């Protein structure tokens, strides 16, 4: 039995354009015909026919930067310390389904507590739960100067952290081997930190030093590649981007202060870029007084956004490969909400055409995924993951952020029917022991105009 789907407009992601009056045929979960309706195979009595009128059909969307273990967290302590990793795996299934319901049929998870997302991936693969296709790393490999080593040296890094702090190149190689043995799809390295949080940054590199030197970086990536795994890195600064690109990282997140030398290395080694500008954009637009990130983070992110738009526009013009991702999993980027905003930012701020931005969220992003040649495009032989849109993303990519516009989602030739529960957000995260958001001096109490008891 085949399924024939008649599409008003079809965007295959094999090029930048959408075509009218197309038909796709699905057998055993994969595409067996894609082309003009008048050339489609004849419909047999046993076949199903689905008519999508004037709706827009495109490949399932991909976010290569979603952290299923974070839990829409407001603090790094909530990500690292509070909530058992077993609880994080269970709640993560709900988050994954939220992404799927919004058209994201594949996710990559770069950086995790313990084996949380690896377990979600395996549970979905085993057929225990319906969910998106997941490609995952384990905890970030980091150093004292890298992301995820948040706590003072006298506290150390908890075993439940999203990072694994290594104390020597030997330890880094051992951690890579452990994660590969446990079944990760790729390795994630914290190649630097965050300017806002890193008081030790050196000015020569825009305030951010690399967490590993070039020799260490090359040794780690070589070992990951030798074991058949891809490499993704967090690199906001110029130095981390340069070392990562020279060592042939497969995917570099952020690259906000990439230099021309860094871009040359990116192009030479064919490193893909995932700017993850949604995180900055949301923080700049949504943060309020009273938020811990306000105003320092907001100011820093505005400066970073401006730099990123400039260097990434140059990278686009130079022919670098771009993938979309959002850092979903923080309270500023909740699951299932803002993934498609990155596509809009690509068009508005990096100069992509709508068609090319959509390819960054499908065809190009697929290249980083496990089974990447089976997803990301509507093409004979690939798995039938599709989104049916009420509206025209070629005219307005922002329509993909409207949940009502995501009409139908197909995963492996089946219509997705998930309705994840709406849980109590205060019981999901927010376990950090934050007691007050203000400083109640006599002057402040007077300024606040009184007491409430
Ligand atoms: Zn991230």
Biggest sheet record: 8 strands, mixed
- Report helical residue fraction: 25-40%
Q: List low-pLDDT spans.
A: none
Gross geometry: globular
Question: Which structural category fits the helices and strands?
Answer: alpha/beta
Distance between the termini: 71 Å
Describe the fold and architecture:
- The chain has 453 residues and is α/β, with parallel strands linked by helices.
- It has a domain at 61-375: TIM Barrel (Alpha-Beta Barrel).
- The chain is built from 13 helices and 18 strands.
- The protein has helices spanning 76-80, 85-101, 116-125, 169-182, 214-226, 238-246, 260-268, 277-286, 296-318, 341-350, 354-360, 363-366, 442-447; strands spanning 3-10, 19-27, 30-36, 48-51, 56-59, 61-63, 104-109, 133-136, 140-142, 163-165, 186-190, 230-235, 251-254, 272-274, 321-322, 386-389, 406-411, 414-415.
- The strands form four sheets. Strands 1, 2, 3, 4, 5, 16, 17 and 18 form an eight-stranded mixed sheet that branches. A five-stranded parallel sheet has the order 11-12-13-14-15. A three-stranded parallel sheet has the order 6-7-8.
- α7 links the parallel β13 and β14 (272-274).
- The protein is globular.
- It starts with a strand and ends in a 6-residue tail after the last helix.
- Zinc ion (ZN) is lined by residues 65, 67, 110-111, 327.
Q: How is the secondary structure organized here?
A:
Elements (H helix, E strand, L loop, with lengths): L2 E8 L8 E9 L2 E7 L11 E4 L4 E4 L1 E3 L12 H5 L4 H17 L2 E6 L6 H10 L7 E4 L3 E3 L20 E3 L3 H14 L3 E5 L23 H13 L3 E6 L2 H9 L4 E4 L5 H9 L3 E3 L2 H10 L9 H23 L2 E2 L18 H10 L3 H7 L2 H4 L19 E4 L16 E6 L2 E2 L26 H6 L6
Parallel strand pairs: 1-4, 1-5, 6-7, 7-8, 9-10, 11-12, 12-13, 13-14, 14-15
Antiparallel strand pairs: 1-2, 2-3, 5-16, 16-17, 17-18
Helix pairs in contact: 2-3, 4-5, 6-7, 8-9, 10-11
The chain binds zinc ion.
The site of zinc ion (ZN) has 5 residues, from loops.
């Amino acid at each position: 039995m085949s399924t024939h789907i008649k599409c008003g407009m079809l965007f295959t992601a094999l090029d930048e354009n959408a075509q009218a009056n197309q038909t796709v045929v699905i057998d055993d979960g994969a595409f067996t015909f894609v082309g003009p309706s008048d050339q489609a195979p004849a419909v047999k009595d046993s076949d199903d026919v689905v008519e999508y009128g004037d709706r827009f059909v495109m490949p399932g969307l991909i976010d290569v930067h979603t952290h299923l273990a974070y839990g829409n967290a407001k603090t790094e302590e909530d990500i690292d310390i509070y909530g058992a990793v077993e609880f994080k795996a269970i709640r993560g299934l709900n988050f994954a389904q939220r992404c799927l319901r919004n058209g994201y049929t594949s996710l990559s998870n770069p950086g995790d507590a313990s084996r949380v997302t690896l377990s979600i991936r395996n549970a979905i693969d085993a057929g225990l739960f319906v969910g998106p296709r997941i490609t995952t790393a384990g905890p970030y490999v980091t150093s004292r100067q890298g992301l995820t080593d948040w706590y003072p040296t006298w506290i150390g890094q908890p075993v439940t952290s999203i990072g694994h702090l290594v104390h020597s190149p030997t330890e880094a190689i051992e951690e890579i081997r452990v994660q590969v043995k446990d079944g990760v799809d790729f390795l994630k390295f914290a190649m630097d930190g965050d300017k806002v949080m890193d008081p030790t940054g050196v000015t020569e590199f825009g305030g951010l030093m690399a967490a590993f030197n070039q020799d260490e970086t090359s040794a780690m990536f070589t070992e990951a590649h030798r074991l058949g795994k891809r490499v993704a890195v967090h690199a906001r600064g110029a130095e981390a981007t340069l070392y990562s690109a020279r060592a042939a990282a497969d995917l570099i997140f952020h690259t906000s202060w990439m230099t021309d030398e860094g871009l040359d290395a990116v192009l030479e080694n064919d490193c893909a870029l995932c700017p993850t500008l949604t995180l900055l954009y949301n923080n700049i637009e949504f943060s309020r007084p009273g938020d811990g990130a306000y105003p320092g983070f907001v100011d820093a992110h505005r400066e970073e956004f401006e730099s990123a738009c400039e260097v990434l526009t140059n990278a686009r013009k130079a022919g670098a490969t771009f993938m979309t991702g959002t850092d979903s999993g923080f309270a500023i980027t909740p699951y299932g909400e803002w993934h498609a905003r990155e596509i809009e930012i690509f068009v508005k701020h990096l100069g992509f055409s709508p068609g090319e931005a959509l390819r960054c969220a499908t065809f190009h992003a697929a290249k980083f995924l496990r089974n990447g040649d089976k997803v990301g495009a509507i093409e004979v032989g690939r798995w039938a993951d599709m989104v049916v849109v009420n509206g025209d993303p070629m005219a307005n990519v922002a329509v993909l952020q409207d949940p009502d516009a995501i009409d139908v989602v197909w995963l492996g030739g089946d219509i997705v029917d998930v309705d994840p529960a709406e849980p109590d957000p205060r019981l999901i995260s927010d376990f950090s022991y934050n007691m007050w958001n203000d400083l109640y001096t006599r002057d402040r109490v007077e300024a606040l105009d009184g007491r409430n008891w």
